[in-house]
Amino acid sequence: MQSLFVAFLFLLSLTIVGAKKKNELDDLENLLENIDQESKDDKKPVNREEVKNPCEDHACGWGKECVVDKKSNPTCECISKCPELDGDPMDKVCSNSNETFASLCDLYRERCLCKKGSKQCEKKAHAKVHLEYLGECKQLQECTDDLMAQFPERMADWLFQVMRELKKRRELHKLEWEELLQEAEQDDEKKHVYPVIWKFCDLDTKPHDKVSP
Ligand SMILES: *[C@@H]1O[C@H](CO)[C@@H](O)[C@H](O)[C@H]1NC(C)=O
C-alpha cells in the first residue's frame, strides 16, 4: 500500500509540476507532514505491565516517528535513523532542488531536522525540500505535447488499477467505493471518472466543505 501511495504521489507531483502549481504541491506536502495525531488524554497507567505502548496507534507525519516522552505521552520527532537499504537504485529519490537523497525517508528526515532547526540539518533550504521523483536525479527528457495529451487518461487508468488492487486486498474500506468500482469496470467513461473522484475524496481529508461522493 505504501509503495502504491508513493507511486501515486510521484505521479501526482508530475501532474502538478507539469501544471506549474507549486503552491498546491506545498499544500499537499504540508498535509502529509502534519498528520501527526493530537495526543488524546491518555489515562494514567495503574499497572505498568498492562499498559500498551502509547505510540502504538499514534500516527506521525513523513520523516517523523513516534517517541514516548518522559511523561509517557507519545510525541512525533524527526526519525533518528532511516532503515538500512539494500542498494536498490530505486530507493534513491530526487528532490525539487535536484539533489539525490538515499531514500524517501532520508529526504523527509532531513526536511524535518531543518524545519526544527536541528544541528543535524545539512542545509537550511532543506526545510522546504520535497520529492520530485523516484530514483537518482537525472537529466529529464522533455515532456512532449503528445505525452502531455496522454497524461490525464493514463493517470485515470492508473488510479483505476490502484482501486482494483485495493479492492482485491479489501483495503478500499467503504462498500460504496467497491460498488462504484464495479460500475466503473463495466463502463469506459466511468472508468476514467470514478477513480479520480475516489482519489480526490481520499486526499481531501480535512475538508470544511466536504460533500459525500
Ligand atoms: C539535475 O541533476 C542531474 C544529475 O546531476 C543533471 O544531469 C541535471 O542536468 C540536473 N537538472 C537540472 C534541471 O539542473
Automatic annotation (TrEMBL):
<dbReference type="InterPro" id="IPR003645">
    <property type="entry name" value="Fol_N"/>
</dbReference>
<keyword id="KW-0272">Extracellular matrix</keyword>
<feature type="domain" description="Follistatin-like">
    <location>
        <begin position="54"/>
        <end position="77"/>
    </location>
</feature>
<dbReference type="GO" id="GO:0005518">
    <property type="term" value="F:collagen binding"/>
</dbReference>
<dbReference type="GO" id="GO:0050840">
    <property type="term" value="F:extracellular matrix binding"/>
</dbReference>
<dbReference type="GO" id="GO:0005509">
    <property type="term" value="F:calcium ion binding"/>
</dbReference>
<keyword id="KW-0325">Glycoprotein</keyword>
<keyword id="KW-1015">Disulfide bond</keyword>
<comment type="similarity">
    <text>Belongs to the SPARC family.</text>
</comment>
<keyword id="KW-0732">Signal</keyword>
<feature type="signal peptide">
    <location>
        <begin position="1"/>
        <end position="19"/>
    </location>
</feature>
<keyword id="KW-0106">Calcium</keyword>
<dbReference type="InterPro" id="IPR019577">
    <property type="entry name" value="SPARC/Testican_Ca-bd-dom"/>
</dbReference>
<dbReference type="GO" id="GO:0005615">
    <property type="term" value="C:extracellular space"/>
</dbReference>
<dbReference type="Pfam" id="PF07648">
    <property type="entry name" value="Kazal_2"/>
</dbReference>
<dbReference type="InterPro" id="IPR011992">
    <property type="entry name" value="EF-hand-dom_pair"/>
</dbReference>
<dbReference type="InterPro" id="IPR002350">
    <property type="entry name" value="Kazal_dom"/>
</dbReference>
<dbReference type="Pfam" id="PF10591">
    <property type="entry name" value="SPARC_Ca_bdg"/>
</dbReference>
<keyword id="KW-0964">Secreted</keyword>
<dbReference type="InterPro" id="IPR001999">
    <property type="entry name" value="Osteonectin_CS"/>
</dbReference>
<dbReference type="InterPro" id="IPR015369">
    <property type="entry name" value="Follistatin/Osteonectin_EGF"/>
</dbReference>
<protein>
    <recommendedName>
        <fullName>Follistatin-like domain-containing protein</fullName>
    </recommendedName>
</protein>
<dbReference type="Pfam" id="PF09289">
    <property type="entry name" value="FOLN"/>
</dbReference>
<dbReference type="InterPro" id="IPR036058">
    <property type="entry name" value="Kazal_dom_sf"/>
</dbReference>
